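Protein modeling request. Please complete all fields; requests missing the sequence field cannot be processed.
Requester role: graduate student
Desired output: 3D structure, token encoding
Chains: 1
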Amino acid sequence: MKKISVLLLILFVFVMAIRQGLAQEVTITITPGWNWIACPMMDTLDFEEAMGSFTPMAGDIIKSRYHFAEYYEGVWVGNIQKFFPGSGYHYKSNRTEPVTLTFQMQQPVLQTVVTTSEPSDVTATSAVVGGTVTIDEGNHVYARGVCWGTEQMSNVDGDHTSNGTDAGTFTTILIGLASSTTYYVRAYAVTDYGLAYGEEQSFTTLEHSGNDTVPEGAIDGLFSVSTIQQVYFSQGNLQYQYQDSVTEIWRFAENQYDYIGNANNGWRDLFGWGTSGYDHGANCYQPWGTSTTYGDYYAYGNWNSNLSDQSGMADWGYNAISNGGNQENLWRTLSQSEWDYVLFARNTISGIRFAKATIREQVIDTVFLMDTIVIDTVFHDVHGIVLLPDNWSESAYSLNDSNVVGAPYETNVIMVNMWEVLEACGVVFLPAAGYRYGASTYNYQNSYGYYWSSTYDDSRYAYSMDFSDNWIYSDDSFYRYFGRSVRLVRNAE
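Delivered output (493 residues):
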């Protein structure tokens, strides 16, 4: 007849005593035949050590739902290596009399260990934080992240991030912080054992210097364009709408990854070189006419002049940008040498200047098919280049093939929600908007990017920065009447 010995209460009391330092072992009775051994302890135990001084009989068997071992010629043979918390085990004793088993416990360990990383890359409005989650074998992580606030002992009831469901080390970026403010942060994890927090860390955001106020319509990141000058990039590509001979509207795209191309909505964002809207011989709306000869779009009176010489005010930045301060002469176009410096020459804290990337937006479409509603998930991808600010920290986000001219766009696929975090850290994105030829011919949208500089080449040509998924040129010279993208900048004080 099989006998069952239920050890749940004994083992539970024993484990609690171990945790309080009151005991190091417990003795239980194994009866002949089958015994049920419950393992409710909070620690994973090594099988060999847990069996302790007990000497099995030949043919003794221990098994769980998925594991099995038999005592054969003085050793346990099988695949049981651990006693896992919450698991049950059957033990078959071949003895004819009861025998005592003394469980030897391993040095107790915490089932979930959470540590909080020391904050780094602290600015006036952001900081890189994170932590490490270590768990027992067989345990699971259901959530992890950091809690933060201006009061000590912040918890998940307040501000917190969600950074995956894995053990290991993670980092995240806190943005939108107040300057000159002390914040407290703790890493947390939710596992099979519940909610655990790491130790508390603190940091104080930097003070705004008074000279680094981000201009209206600009991305909050500084980029060196020479050894003595830094600039802010505009929040998106330049866009224009012609309403009548008096009214012209200029604006920056709402999102950096937005471009219009050949969309028929009254707005345009592919410009002939120098068509800024001022009295220089080529109004902004002229490039959408029927002519494709270079003479119609030479920008202004002197053919051999740069847009930035200020005599003809042909630089697009001389216009009042409605969402960029709405005053004349605030913005400007990068010169050819400045494009070259941003991409290939400037020094940055991380050493990273640019990377090819794809901004991906997940869209849920509802389709009616044969009286049936079909839910379809569609991904909208926009290809381009990301430019990293001078103070970019590589620990903030891992980019593949940085500074690699020949990398494809899919090298870095960034979901829109993550892109918003990167943008808040000053990252610039230049979409591959293609180009326009004449009134209605558009080519290479979402394949190639073409961005005008303010530098002329000769009476027919001007320089632009061009890229695809396998090359980047900072000194491409092309016909001025081609419609290309414009991205404006403002000098930092």
